[in-house]
Model the fold of this input.
Amino acid sequence: MASKRIAPSVLAADFANLQRDIEMINKSEADWFHIDIMDGVFVPNISFGMPVLRDIAKHANKTIDVHLMIVDPDRYIKTFADLGSDVLTVHYEACTHLHRTLQAIKAEGMKAGVAINPHTNVSLLEDVINDIDLVCIMSVNPGFGGQSFIENTYKKVKQLREIITANNADTLIEIDGGVTNKNAKQLVDAGADVLVAGSFVFKSTNPTQTIQELKEIINE
Ligand code: DX5
Ligand code: ZN
Done:
């Protein structure tokens, strides 16, 4: 079993000290950069856009995992590929032709991810599971950092793990929202591969050490 990953969410970084926070992630035991793009339409918040991602990508030396919380994401697939995204995740709820969108993401050389809101059942992904590189299970309603973890997530992770195994897929399961040292172990035990952590990392007194602590918890 490949080692479990931690993806700090840059949304919780200090944007006035972004380079400092990126270098912190570079030097830490974190595996990926998680980048939240919000359009104020799909979710009730606007985060940051292309110029900021371009500058993050200039400094980041790890996998760039982009989470698009935007309507009609097909419009920007090529743009995000050109900006240096390694994984591009779209929302199930924002895609009318999800299968086509996944192929378009892969055609641009990126890994294709699908995020599902807390109310969306994992079984809806069964018919495309072999086309998905990563499923991001939202463990909060998307739009803001710092929200509390929804406990029903464990059940969803187990159900998705069963679907992946039954279909002999190699899809990764990512968890996004409210991840802390209190739920990390139970999430990987349920079958998660990648844990996104924003506030828990950046609001801690020593983010580097917090990342290390999470890594130890999930790989013990
Ligand atoms: C929420 C975002 C998350 C967020 C997680 O819409 O998708 O990635 O940054 O932040 P925390 O870990 O603070 O819940
Ligand atoms: Zn996210």
